[in-house]
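Subject: sequence -> structure tokens, single chain

Hey, anyone have a minute? Need the predicted structure for the following. Not urgent.
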Amino acid sequence: AMAQAALDAAGLHFDELNKLRVLEPEVAAQTAQLREECRAFLDKTAEFQKIVGSFIELVDQLAKAAESEKMKAIGARNLLKSIAKQREAQEQQLQALIAEKKMQLERYRIEYETLCKVEADQNEFIDQFIFQK
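Reply:
Had a minute. Here:
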């Protein structure tokens, strides 16, 4: 017991295998346990970093896909706008053509009426000429 007290005073201890140690067996056991916990913590941290890395990769892929879809949608919208403008231009051309044809029809109608009057006048002249003979 006295030898044990002298060893304790010198900071030396015997472990369960009766090996001489500088650390108390309890402190040595706590140190080993802490080392294991640290190792487990580091493993979990590495695993977490892997998960976060793959999550970031996935989010990047989704962002790229969303950007691509957005560009497609913008392209489709622009195409629709240009088609609508083309249709509008076509409609205006057709309206102008209709107006032109209506004016032409009106000129022909007036010309026809004039010719009918000329024909009637000529027929009347012919009738008068025949009756005079």
